[in-house]
C-alpha cells in the first residue's frame, strides 16, 4: 500500500495555514490555530480517526475567528483529498453515533468526490468559550467540500453546547476512520460501479 500522506499550504491576506496528515497514523496531533477550542476539536478528530495531524494556522484573529476556522477546514479537506488520491480500495462509506453525556450525534459520510453537507445541529448558546458556535458549520462545510465528501451531521439531542460540538467532531472522526479504511477484499479497485468517483 502506498503512503497516504499529504501536506497542503494555503496563504491569503487573511490566513496562512499548513496541514500535514497521514491517513494511516496512530492519532497523534500537533495543532496550533490560535483558537483554543478549535485546537481541542481537531486533536479529538485526530485521536478518534487515527490519523496523524499537524495544523499550523496564523489568521486575522484581531477581526474574528471566521476566516481561520473556515480556512483550516479548506486546507484540511484539500490535504485529505491529496492523501486519498484515486481512493482505490477504501470502504468509501462510514457512519457513527457518538454519545457525550446528555448529547447524541450521528455522522454519515460518503467519500464520493461529490461534496455536500447536511447540517442539522442547533446550539443553545452563541459561544463555546470564545468561539462562535455558528463557525462549526463553516468548518464542516469547508472540510466536506474540499475533501470531496458527502457528509450528513445531525445532533439528535443535547443541552450543552460544548458537548454538542465535541460529539459532532468525534462522530465525524469515527465515520471518517471507517470510510477511509482499506478493505483488502477490494484489491485496489475503485469503490464505485461507475469505475471512478466523482460526477
Automatic annotation (TrEMBL):
One of its GO terms (biological process) is L-histidine biosynthetic process. Its main location: cytoplasm. It comes from the Bacteria. PROSITE patterns: IGP_DEHYDRATASE_1, IGP_DEHYDRATASE_2. CDD domains: IGPD. GO terms for molecular function: imidazoleglycerol-phosphate dehydratase activity. Pathway: Amino-acid biosynthesis; L-histidine biosynthesis; L-histidine from 5-phospho-alpha-D-ribose 1-diphosphate: step 6/9. InterPro entries: IGPD_sf (IPR038494), ImidazoleglycerolP_deHydtase (IPR000807), ImidazoleglycerP_deHydtase_CS (IPR020565), Ribosomal_Su5_D2-typ_SF (IPR020568). The keyword Cytoplasm applies. One of its GO terms (cellular component) is cytoplasm. Pfam families: IGPD. The keyword Cytoplasm applies. Its EC number is 4.2.1.19. It catalyses: D-erythro-1-(imidazol-4-yl)glycerol 3-phosphate = 3-(imidazol-4-yl)-2-oxopropyl phosphate + H2O. It is found in: Cytoplasm. Belongs to the imidazoleglycerol-phosphate dehydratase family. PANTHER family: IMIDAZOLEGLYCEROL-PHOSPHATE DEHYDRATASE (PTHR23133:SF2), IMIDAZOLEGLYCEROL-PHOSPHATE DEHYDRATASE HIS7 (PTHR23133). This is Imidazoleglycerol-phosphate dehydratase. It comes from Parvularcula marina.
Amino acid at each position: 500500500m502506498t503512503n497516504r500522506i499529504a501536506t497542503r499550504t494555503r496563504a491569503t491576506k487573511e490566513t496562512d495555514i499548513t496541514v500535514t496528515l497521514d491517513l494511516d497514523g496512530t492519532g497523534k496531533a500537533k495543532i496550533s490555530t490560535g483558537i483554543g477550542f478549535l485546537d481541542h476539536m481537531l486533536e479529538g478528530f485526530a485521536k478518534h480517526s487515527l490519523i496523524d495531524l499537524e495544523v499550523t494556522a496564523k489568521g486575522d484573529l484581531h477581526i474574528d475567528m471566521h476566516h481561520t476556522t473556515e480556512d483550516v477546514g479548506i486546507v484540511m479537506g484539500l490535504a485529505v483529498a491529496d492523501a486519498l488520491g484515486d481512493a482505490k480500495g477504501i470502504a468509501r462509506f462510514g457512519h457513527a453515533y457518538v454519545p457525550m453525556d446528555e448529547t447524541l450525534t450521528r455522522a454519515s459520510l460518503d467519500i464520493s468526490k461529490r461534496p455536500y453537507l447536511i447540517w442539522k445541529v442547533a446550539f443553545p448558546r452563541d459561544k463555546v468559550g470564545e468561539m462562535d458556535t455558528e463557525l462549526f458549520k463553516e468548518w464542516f462545510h469547508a472540510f466536506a467540500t474540499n475533501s470531496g465528501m458527502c457528509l450528513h451531521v445531525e445532533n439528535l439531542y443535547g443541552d450543552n453546547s460544548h458537548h454538542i460540538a465535541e460529539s459532532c467532531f468525534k462522530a465525524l472522526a469515527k465515520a471518517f476512520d471507517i470510510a477511509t479504511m482499506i478493505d483488502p477484499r477490494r484489491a485496489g479497485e475503485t469503490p464505485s460501479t461507475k469505475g471512478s468517483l466523482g460526477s
